[in-house]
Design a protein that fits this description.
It is a single chain. The protein is 65% helix and 11% strand. The chain is mainly alpha-helical. The strands form 2 sheets. The chain has a two-stranded antiparallel ribbon with strand order 1-2. It has a two-stranded antiparallel sheet with strand order 3-4. Helix 6 runs antiparallel to helix 7, helix 13 packs parallel to helix 15 and helix 13 runs antiparallel to helix 16. The longest helix is centred in the C-terminal third of the chain and has 30 residues. A hairpin with a 2-residue loop joins strand 1 and strand 2. It is globular.
Length: 474
């Protein structure tokens, strides 16, 4: 009985460390997005700042690209660059960039006679590089542990969005209310008119008539601003603390791996045999269902290549929409129904992410058909959000409270579903060991990049989406 209790405590300890480790995966980028209402007020770019950050985050994909090239051409030939050292590096860089941003986010520089938030933009690039690279390092590292802990990792990744959102709520981000008031304004009317003389081709312009003044009534918002409870400096110090906790958890996970995986397993995940690495750890945790048995066919053989690449493709598609497309369109879809709907959607989505990841721990699905059906349902929900955004500023049911509720429910449901699907796909692909999880991380970044490259010109270049304005009349 005593031995069984020790094993249970070890499982809880491992689960906790994996969750904290996963929280450091995307906490920096998620922190930037939820803190935007505070940042734009002090940035010369104002609300064009999100466009700059979108470009910066996509440029950060150079991080995983460099890592994959080093892995292919250098890691296997040299012990200088390894997966473990790379994770140490990116977590340290993430913590350093976060603490530097905490004290320099207001700093600006003049470029071509225009002020820019250079410190914010440059340090955001470093933070985004850390998060993008985590997709191709954190996931493969999880091949060292039994498959059921993959769900715990995704709960931690979901916490990387929830924790900054909770901190922002405590800070008071987004608390901005207004009333619509009628105001009389005096406008200068300019009339351009022509007079016709003679035939059809005898037309002359008599000139531009200026200075015609008239009274007009407009409906304009009257804002009630609420100052945040603490500054962005404190917020980014909290983000730094989360990164440090993630780094500490990783150090402890390495110690656990090295302690329990002895002569049978190597220390570098790139050199690990999936069977041996899982077997060594499952022996310690008494988890007979977490890895392949010597007397049974390998799960690698059971998961054929067609299903393997099919799931990778689905993973790329859902990440392209959830990470690349929808974040750029969320404000267009929600703001026509009011600021409250927009901020409530962001908050509940942050809660739905880790909750639905944990749901997979209770109700797991591994059938590729079931996963495909789930993806189709998610695409339907995403299509509704995209359609509402495309009809902004006058979407369906704009003047009805039901419209905002529907968008809220559809969006939160979609976030929860895609979180569950990501966990399911990664858990199934994990049977391919290190290589499977590496390609799973690659599909995440490739899908996100393609989605962002598609939506960015539609929003920022061609202007197909129109932002709703307060008190706007349709």
């Amino acid at each position: 009985m005593k031995a069984a209790r020790v094993i249970t405590l070890e499982k809880v300890k491992l689960a906790f460390l994996i969750c904290v480790f996963g929280t450091g995966s995307w906490v920096a980028v998620n922190g930037l997005w939820v803190e935007l209402p505070v940042l734009v007020g002090q940035s010369p770019q104002q609300w064009s700042l999100p466009s700059y950050l979108t470009v910066v985050i996509q440029l950060a994909n150079i991080g995983p690209l460099v890592y994959l090239l080093l892995q292919k051409y250098a890691i296997c030939k040299s012990k200088v660059v390894t997966e473990t050292r790379t994770i140490y590096l990116i977590l340290f860089v993430g913590a350093l960039a976060s603490i530097l941003l905490a004290f320099t986010w207001k700093e600006t520089s003049v470029i071509n006679n225009k002020p820019y938030s250079t410190s914010l933009i440059v340090l955001s690039l470093f933070m985004a590089t850390v998060d993008c690279t985590s997709s191709v390092t954190f996931l493969p590292f999880m091949a060292n542990f039994p498959s059921k802990f993959m769900t715990i990792y995704y709960v931690g990744e979901g916490m990387s969005g929830l924790v900054p959102s909770v901190v922002a709520m405590i800070q008071g981000v987004g608390k901005q209310s207004y009333t619509c008031e009628e105001r009389a304004v005096l406008k200068n009317m300019s009339l351009n008119y022509t007079t016709k003389k003679g035939g059809a081709h005898a037309e002359s312009t008599t000139g531009l008539k200026n200075g015609t003044m008239f009274n007009s009534t407009e409906i304009v918002p009257s804002y009630f601003h609420t100052e945040p409870r603490f500054s962005a400096t404190v917020f980014f110090v909290v983000i730094t603390a989360i990164m440090v906790c993630s780094l500490t958890a990783f150090i402890l996970l390495i110690r656990i791996k090295n302690k329990n995986v002895k002569l049978e397993c190597t220390h570098d995940a790139q050199e690990m045999d999936q069977y041996n690495s899982t077997k060594c750890l499952q022996n310690f945790y008494n988890d007979t269902n977490s890895g392949p048995k010597s007397s049974a066919p390998s799960t690698i053989d059971q998961l054929n290549n067609r299903k393997y690449y099919f799931l990778l493709s689905l993973n790329g598609v859902i990440n392209g929409i959830s990470n690349g497309v929808l974040p750029a369109l969320q404000s267009y879809a929600c703001l026509p129904y009011g600021n409250n709907i927009y901020h409530l959607t962001l908050t509940l989505s942050a809660v739905a992410n880790p909750v639905c990841c944990f749901l997979y721990f209770l109700v797991s699905v591994q059938s590729s058909v079931a996963i495909f059906i789930g993806v189709c349902v998610y695409l339907a929900s995403a299509s509704y959000t995209i359609g509402i955004a495309a009809t902004s500023p006058c979407p369906l049911w704009r003047d009805s409270s039901a419209g905002g509720v529907v968008v809220l429910l559809v969006t939160v449901f979609g976030v929860g579903l895609v979180s569950y699907l990501k966990t399911a796909i990664s858990t199934v692909i994990r049977s391919h060991g290190y290589k499977g999880l590496l390609l799973c991380g690659v599909s995440v970044q490739v899908g996100s990049l393609v989605g962002a490259l598609i939506i960015f010109p539609l929003v920022n270049v061609y202007g197909y989406f129109k932002q709703s304005q307060a008190c706007q009349v349709c």
